[in-house]
Amino acid sequence: MWQLCEGTHPVLTDDGGAILSERTGRWTCLTPTASAAVLLLLASTSREEAASRYAKRYGISPEQAAADVRAVAEALTAQGLAHNGQTPARKRRRGWGWWR
């Protein structure tokens, strides 16, 4: 099941939405349709269910909806903002890196 990582916070805006990463302190801005895809992914039990609801919402083909939802999910996963059900491994710093 697709989820946002711990420490990320989705926000709806007038222009679509955004996701704040506490880890980096950066905002990732989303278009209105990408925001809808994120909300549907979070509310659904599978990508297929989210894509089906997305297709109904926007009146597009199921294939196009699946591609759109997959693109949003993969982009946010690649940025480290989401994961596919398993908590991603944390990168450990070696040594006494706190003063570097």
From TrEMBL:
InterPro entries: PQQD (IPR008792). It holds the Pfam family PqqD. It comes from the Bacteria. This is PqqD family protein.
